[in-house]
Amino acid sequence: MTKRFRALIAGVGGLVLIATACIQSGDPSTGQTPRASEKPQQGGQIKEGQTSDIATTNPILVNDPASRRISQLIYDDLIQPDPKTGEPRPRLATFSVSADGLTYSYEINGKADWSDGKPIIAQDWVTGLEAVGKSQKTVRKSSFQDVEGFLDYCVGLPSSGCKGIAKTISGVKIDSANPKKFSVTMTKVNCAAIIDLTGYILPTQVFGKYVTDLSKDEIDTAPENLKPTVFSGPFKFTERREGDQIILNRNDGYWQGAPHVDQYVLKIVANATAIANGLRTGDLTWGTIQAKDLADMQAVDKVKITRYPGVAFTFIGWNTASPQAPGLADKRVRQALAYGLDMDQIIRAVTFGEAVAHVAHHVPAQWAYPAAGLEPYKYDKTRAEQLLKDAGWLAGSDGVLQKDGNRFTLTLSTQSDSVERVAVAQAAAQQYKQLGIDARTAPEASQGLLVKLTTGEPVVDAAILTWSLGVEPDPYQIWHSSQIPDRARGMTGFGFTFFRDAEMDKAIEQARNPSNRDCSIAARKRNYETFNKILNDDQPYNFGYVPNFLAGSQKMLQSFAPASFAAVYNVHQWWIKQ
Predict the structure, then answer these.
(1) What is the spatial distance between Cα 336 and Cα 339, in angstroms, rounded to a whole number?
(2) Which H or E element spans position 405?
(3) Whole-angstrom Cα distance, residue 108 to residue 118?
């Protein structure tokens, strides 16, 4: 790469837009790596434990970890972040960027074919981009808004910027002499583009009929979203047994070489305890375990545990527009909720010390993590009570805080399939009751909760979830005000706190699309320091904690080498030692 290109991508990666804990992993040196003299054995089955079923296999619609895993295994990406550092590396394609930072060029590997034998070509990337443009369910239009002509092409609400007046995307050019080569021109420098433009490569022979000039949003209901038929990844979708398992068979024609194992099964289990039990009995090959099960699992001789700091954080997101809990609109109340929650105690009780308290969006593993200058919000009940009093919330005759005739009620929603997050909700509710808040918990199915949040249903006061992040620190899709869902207009988004701040928007924009074209880490970090300071002060999230991820795997699983920024990147090399 040129010096200019290295400067542009110095800190990029991918934000995994999943509001649940994505299965990540640790230092590859801790994995089960076979001796160089060992020859991989063929056959066998890998069974990964997961606590929720898939919602889709179409990558443009993926919002949850189970769907993301299956999508990763059946569809390859243009670029693969280095598993240790997150630096973009070629996967399906080599890439380069022009000196002015506006044009990205790609060439897809000549050996790369779809499972039906047809070559993977540039048009397949275009089909994926057009699918994003046509979809009314995807939350990823903003990833491509700086591609020349995309906003003219895409269809959506006026607030999305989509105009729907063009039949093609003018900034995308396919090489007339080589159908595997293409270029993408941006309207402005976008520091996150190298990862955003990885895009979604969909087989045109399958999905092309959903993105014609006459198409509307048919891509959102395409039967192939749950029953895919053509694949570019190491495995092929075979069967989904709803609520039980998804079965993938080896793709013998995989361009990097057929996997050593015959099958990859995503097994749906009740909770993380069931994952630990499955590892103990040998029913599961690998999965992420909860800290409460760590000591027991370490005593199981056939299981290997890999511990590593997560590129994620578990948080409480406050609905600042909640009609049921109007106090959440007041910054003083949100700060009181931070001071009034003993996060260190929760970490000890819920994660058994396998986490660190957190007060910003970016996490320590990311270069954008703020080194200093943030309020730590150490537990201070007296200060919390004073802030609530300053905000006009006073104890009523029953001890519950009241203001203007409204009792301070607070419902903490979370995913019922996460034992850890349910425990966090219960601990938080108990502590908030000590402040005079009528707090209660409301666990529910993951998919239902995520739909409520991303569509802007007003019924959720607060949500306890986990953001799984990537190397690229761009927080646009979570925190920019344009990403706030609007139920009345059918606009979805991850801005479900309804918090907006003009200065924060500006900091996000300048770190993403710098007016001076400076994508250096130093320049972007200055903007992210402003961004994190605003969030830290206004507290639309209680940022909770950064967990250690604990990956359990059978010792017989070889070449299993997950790392902080990729887990199944080398799955075609995994094998079972008999």
Answers:
(1) 5
(2) none
(3) 13
Task: Please give the C-alpha separations between residue 372 and each of 125, 153, 357, 479, in angstroms, as whole numbers.
Answer: 41, 43, 14, 21
Q: Is 505 exposed, middle or buried (0-12, 13-18, 19+ CB in 10 A)?
A: middle
**Residue 402 half-sphere exposure, CB side, CA atoms within 13 Å?**
10
Helix then strand count (H, E) for the chain reads 16, 23
What kind and span of H or E run contains 441? Answer: strand 438-444
**Cα torsion angle, 25, 50, 237, 312, sign:** negative
327 and 306 Cβ atoms separated by less than 8 Å: no
The pTM (predicted TM-score) of the whole model is 0.76
CA dihedral 534, 538, 544, 546 (to 10 degrees): -10
pLDDT: is 5 or 454 the higher one? 454
Between CA 358 and CA 385 the distance in angstroms is: 22
pLDDT(12) > 60: no
Residue of 45, 74, 44 whose CA lies nearest to 58:
74
Chain-centroid distance, C-alpha 426: 25
- For 104-155, give the DSSP string: EEEEE-TT-B-TTSPBP-HHHHHHHHHHHHH-SS-S-GGGGTTBTTHHHH--
Take residue 550 and report the two structure tokens written for it.
């604990």
The residues, ordered by sequence, that sit 6+ positions from 309 with a Cβ below 8 Å of its Cβ are 356, 363, 364, 365, 546, 548, 549, 564
Beta carbons of 49 and 274 less than 8 angstroms apart: yes
Instruction: Tell me if 272 sits within 8 A of 278, measured CB to CB.
Output: no
- Residue 38 gets which letter from DSSP? P
Tell me, what DSSP letter sits at residue 435?
T
The amino acid at residue 396 is: G
Rg (CA), the chain: 24
Dihedral sign computed on CA atoms, order 444, 446, 451, 454: positive
What pLDDT score was predicted for residue 22? 32
What are the residues whose beta carbons fall under 8 Å from the beta carbon of 229, sequence distance 6 or more? 206, 237
Residue 366 three-state SS: coil
Write the DSSP assignment of 84-115 as a string of letters.
Answer: TT--EEESSEEEEE-TTS-EEEEEE-TT-B-T
Per-residue pLDDT tens digits for 192-243? 998 899 999 999 999 999 999 999 999 999 999 999 999 999 999 999 999 9
DSSP category for residue 566: B
**Average pLDDT of the residues in 175-194:** 96
Both tokens of 216, joined, read: 């509307």
Q: Pull the structure tokens for residue 260.
A: 């050593």
Minimal CA–CA distance to 74: which of 266, 343, 272, 282? Answer: 266
Structure-derived torsion over alpha carbons of residues 317, 320, 323, 328, reported in degrees to the nearest 10: 90
Distances in Å between the Cα of 193 and the Cα atoms of 175, 185, 513 are: 21, 10, 10
Q: Given the structure tokens 């024609």, which residue do they identify? A: 253
Instruction: Using alpha carbons, list the distances in angstroms from residue 217 to 135, 236, 318, 547.
Output: 5, 26, 32, 38
